[in-house]
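BUG: 3D viewer hangs when loading the predicted structure for this chain

Environment: internal workstation, default settings.
Expected: structure renders.
Actual: progress bar stalls at 90%.

Input used:
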Amino acid sequence: MAIEKININSPVYLKVENSNLASCKLTIAIYSGAFNASPTTTYELIKNEVGNNNYVIFEIGELIKDYIAYSFSGTFGSNGVNVWVQTTATPFNSSGTAQDAISSIMLAFDGVGYFEEGFDITQTTNSATTQNLTRHKGSVKTLISNSTIFRETQEVIYIPVLANLSVNSGSDTLSGATTVNFKNGGSTVSTVTVPTGVSNSNNAIAYATSTTATLTSVDIVTGGSTETITIEEQDCNKFTNLPLVFVNKSGALQKVNFFLKSTESVNVQREEFKTNTLTTGATYSINAHQYKNRNINSRETIVLNTGYVNDSYNQVIEEILFTKRCWLFKDNQYLPVIPQDKSVQFKTSLNDRVANYTMTFNFAFDKINTIR
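Structure tokens produced before the viewer hung:
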């Protein structure tokens, strides 16, 4: 049996069909960490057929979303963006007798599919019962969309790829990338072998890294297939580069840089009330506040500029706009931020020659600590 890859921010449908089906029970186990052959049930759903059509359809993507636990403080890997999903569909006939049950193993990514990409369909059969899994699968190799990475000189580079999963003593698998080759010109300067036999959801995404001073490209190899990403070095002599890490379209953490000018501002919220300053002696002090503030807090905003990028960065900007989570490296730590832009005009080398994107982010916390 294959381990099925699903992106849960697009619908995930299970269609269960049996010629005697009158109703169907679907048990769903959702968990993270080491694979469990007999996991605890998270949901139990029951549906009746409609119009004697002998099938039912469940949508389970919405149920899985609640179990994604985002965690990032600067370390790539074990970030809570993948969970195991195991289902068992049991049809029942009109007399309530169970028919042939059918099970599946899925690895869920916090990713999304685009409309024009359509759905991927996987059909499995157990005797008289057939199940169709309809979802957006996405890449089973490279987990970023852009074909160029703009890198600060000697910056550690992270390439997210799908690892090779194997559970139930190797009888259930999901194949990812094979190797990641970091290159300078035509020469390979370092090679990362993508892990195999992975059975823990926290290790489903492998982040191939390189600290080599000069890089020009990265080759992601899967069997006899190779995908190349170009690397362009950017010198940051005038402005401080501010890296941003976000959950991308593929459900992986991706690091991008904002090389040019940044500006910060603060928005203060407060309530003002009028108080009585009259003393018992029927007088008052001219140093006492007749108007006072309360419930004071503020949030900071930062405006960033990417620097000059190419056409492949249009996809990066789009993915940042609809990301679920992102973090900005500032003051030697990664701080949670929220994109504020709701639209963007894409730029191309043909129309604009050079492209710099300006984006606005709010810090995702109050400036004054109100955690209780």
